[in-house]
Amino acid sequence: MAPMIYGGGAEESLLPRRRRPSLAGAVFNVATSIIGAGIMSIPATLKVLGVIPAFVMIVLIGIVVEISVEFMLRFTYSGDARTYAGLMRESFGRWGAVAVQICVMITNLGCLIMYLIIIGDVLSGTGEDHLGVLQEWFGVHWWNIRAVALLFIVVFVMLPLLLYRRVESLWLSSAVSVALAVVFVGICSGMAIAALIQGQTQTPRLLPDLNGGLSFFNLFTAIPVIVTAFTFHFNVHAIGVELGKASDMMSAVRIALILCAAIYFAIGIFGYLLFGEATMDDILVNFDQSSSGSSLTSLLNDIVRLSYALHLMLVFPLLNFSLRTNIDEFLFSKRPHLAVDNKRFLILTLALLALAYILAIAIPSIWYLFQFMGSTSAVCLAFIFPGAVALRDIHGISSGRDKIIASIMISLAVITSCIAISTNIYNMVV
């Protein structure tokens, strides 16, 4: 049996004894891994796809994600690997592991940078026309500009959470994060219902508005957004190995997927009802009273924006956990377990946090990068790699049905991603 990279096994005895991971804690950690910045783009996907196709896509992608995770866990517990990279190494050798590690690095680092950018937008705004919450409350000062406000959050909020050695230790912050997402959805639904009663909402389109060939291909650009919103495969082993049983992990995954699908569709339909065709790619911009001309109260605007910013602060440690572990496994595969090497753990943690902070200050927006991640690294982690493992079937445990599903999963992922990438490139240059 290979060493347990994420806890358990021989290294477990070297760590301080903690409470046994629970199913509820796993559900919160999975749900927090799923719900990130993607929730803000779900209303825009309803605007592009229409309500019915968007609902169908959310359900279908959720089902396919559940199947892909089942593939991962089944092959993990049939072999010696206890990490995603180790799983791919067993099936495809060193280059399989490297492919996973690179995709995790691209996806997670990109998301962490974007989280900091959005938190900076909420607290310090994007300019004179878009003031942040701190600037609206206290005026513009040196201590609430983006660089200083983010530095405070990074040092006093995120760093303490990043110093935990086990992902299970984050269960409470994950529970609070999920609660904040529910609060966000609750406020949006309340405002949408109030606007509906007052006759201030627009009738949402049930089907897409196709105005030519390009509009049809634009539909494919919305699919990677949903794929990215459901991608949490980089944390499957981190959470599952600590939980112990594959059956328990699958139960946690199914519960979390149902919860997140409900949250996604709720924020999608209520956000679309509130803002109609004016719904932005990032719905948070619609809650900026100075830019949207909304009649919403300042209090509700601030609660919506701050609840989302706090949610991202608590999601940040979970994505950083898998990013840190993959980079360590990539660079120091023959060194002792990261959690018991204090010097290496601290250096890697501080280096990644500093890199994300510097890039978040230097890059004003990475929405195009986020779209491309959904079409490339995220779709590889969510569908292509798990499907490839099932097709490779080194343990002889894939049924004929499994291989058919895996083939369809990979084919649809590749076709959809190619169309989405091509359409995005066309829209950028034309």
From TrEMBL:
Family annotation (InterPro entries): AA_transpt_TM
Protein known as: Transmembrane amino acid transporter family protein
Residue ranges of every copy of the Amino acid transporter transmembrane domain listed in the record: 24-426
GO cellular component, one term: organelle membrane
Domain of life: Eukaryota
Chief localization: membrane
Subcellular location field: Membrane
GO molecular function, one term: L-amino acid transmembrane transporter activity
Pfam families: Aa_trans (PF01490)
Keywords: Amino-acid transport, Membrane, Transmembrane, Transmembrane helix, Transport
Signal peptide per UniProt: none
Membrane topology of the entry: Multi-pass membrane protein
Ranges annotated as spanning the membrane: 23-42, 48-73, 94-120, 140-163, 170-197, 217-240, 252-275, 303-323, 344-363, 369-392, 404-426
